[in-house]
DNA sequence: ACCTGAACACCGTTCAAGT
DNA sequence: ACCTGAACACCGTTCAAGT
């Protein structure tokens, strides 16, 4: 049980001194760098989705040749890994949350996690196939720590972390993918009414019609936490 | 909140009478059909993973021209949708499970669901982006029905179904993607020991080292059910 | 109703070469 | 140390045409 590909380093030697203000290149373009590539990749993914990220298009936006990217990055997979992890970076120091109430703490952490991914809907569908980057690992560490302080036994920690991770991942993916654009909503409603005969329970539960995603997420999380720490 | 693309029908008119034994074509190849295309697509996905499914390769294996596929199928997306749903078909009538114990019933249903997907590891990563086909909807209906009989109030049914769906989906995806092939295991162990300094809780929980996936799945599911139906 | 090949507009990546 | 263009071996899908 281990992270795949998480040690994929590029050929680039590890830089110690990172210039904060990269000087402009001769033609107004800042020089290529791992960071710049990832930033633009995220932009591209936000704008066009998973299918829109192309090494050629990426190079275009960066004002460089396609093959120049390969100096900084192993391959396209690598770009995906880096883009995903970058989305899960913490924007504010997580200590701000650390109140006394562990449960509220966990709920906040997972809510922030979900929100970060929903800001970049492609990230949810990508998560399953990607390695665990440092930001993801950092969030898992924080989660485990909070659970441990809440009194979850070491023997159960494993299960507790995975359960919550799985729940958040599943909920985020579901939310990101089943949200129908407004102009399709009418057609979708129609189709589902027709489904009622074959799937009466689904219809009764309003499973596909209710759109209080945040509420469903929060209530389900509460149920799970009830089970984990009675 | 509604299924995307779930009404995508091909240009083919709805067949009422499906011949059980399609006669051989003149060159030993049975004629092209939606069913045959999907079956071979699943074979291809099992053998080569998501990246291995190509319209050209698919046509090759079917002994037909590439463009012939497009008569039976809308496009590559459509093939993915159909392949995914076909994997979730019930092999035995689900009534066999219906004992009296609703909880055991739910656990069995979800275990079977997960097992079906793990037999085709590509299906887990695919699920997030696909529409709800009839087999998926059928399983959701069955699940909701069992929960309802177990005493979950109609007002909570929505949350209960989604929570379990999210949990199973997350757990299956995690399992399918973090299972390291044996020959990579040694290297992975090494890497993770090195990680212990920065992520002490993760190390202590053996989050990435324990490989009792089935146990973790079952125990987490129990916790969730405890919360859902105390 | 069903199948086809040629053509179009793309892909990711290797390689040998430039500065 | 960093960047490059040409070339290779692929893609999915449109189209006009065949039976």
TrEMBL record, chains A, B:
Region of interest (Disordered), residue spans: 1-32
InterPro entries: Homeodomain-like_sf (IPR009057), HTH-type_TetR-like_transc_reg (IPR050109), HTH_TetR (IPR001647), Repressor_TetR_C (IPR004111), Tet_transcr_reg_TetR (IPR003012), Tet_transcr_reg_TetR-rel_C_sf (IPR036271)
PROSITE patterns: HTH_TETR_2 (PS50977)
Molecular function terms, GO-annotated: DNA-binding transcription factor activity; transcription cis-regulatory region binding
Domain HTH tetR-type: 31-91
GO biological process per UniProt: negative regulation of DNA-templated transcription; response to antibiotic
Keywords on record: DNA-binding, Repressor, Transcription, Transcription regulation
DNA-binding span(s): 54-73
SUPFAM superfamilies, A to Z: Homeodomain-like, Tetracyclin repressor-like, C-terminal domain
Superkingdom as given in the UniProt entry: Bacteria
Ranges of compositional bias, category Basic and acidic residues: 1-18
Function comment: TetR is the repressor of the tetracycline resistance element; its N-terminal region forms a helix-turn-helix structure and binds DNA. Binding of tetracycline to TetR reduces the repressor affinity for the tetracycline resistance gene (tetA) promoter operator sites.
Protein name: TetR family transcriptional regulator
């Amino acid at each position: 049980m281990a992270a795949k590909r998480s040690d994929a380093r590029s050929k680039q030697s590890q830089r110690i001194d990172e210039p904060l203000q990269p000087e402009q290149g001769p033609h107004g373009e800042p020089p290529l760098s791992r960071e710049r590539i990832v930033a633009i990749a995220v932009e591209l993914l936000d704008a066009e989705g998973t299918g829109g990220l192309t090494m050629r298009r990426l190079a275009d936006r960066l004002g460089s040749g396609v093959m120049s990217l390969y100096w900084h990055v192993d391959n396209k997979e690598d770009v995906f890994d880096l883009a995903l992890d970058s989305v899960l970076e913490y924007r504010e120091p997580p200590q701000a949350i650390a109140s006394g109430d562990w449960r509220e703490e966990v709920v906040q952490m997972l809510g922030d996690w979900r929100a970060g991914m929903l800001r970049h809907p492609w990230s949810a569908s990508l998560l399953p196939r990607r390695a665990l980057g440092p930001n993801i690992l950092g969030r898992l560490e924080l989660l485990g720590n909070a659970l441990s302080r809440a009194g979850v036994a070491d023997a159960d920690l494993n299960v507790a972390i995975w359960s919550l991770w799985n729940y958040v991942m599943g909920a985020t993916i579901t939310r990101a993918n089943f949200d129908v654009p407004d102009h399709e909503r009418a057609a979708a409603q129609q189709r589902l009414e027709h489904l009622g005969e074959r799937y009466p329970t689904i219809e009764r539960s309003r499973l596909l019609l209710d759109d209080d995603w945040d509420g469903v997420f929060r209530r389900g999380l509460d149920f799970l936490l009830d089970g984990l720490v009675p």
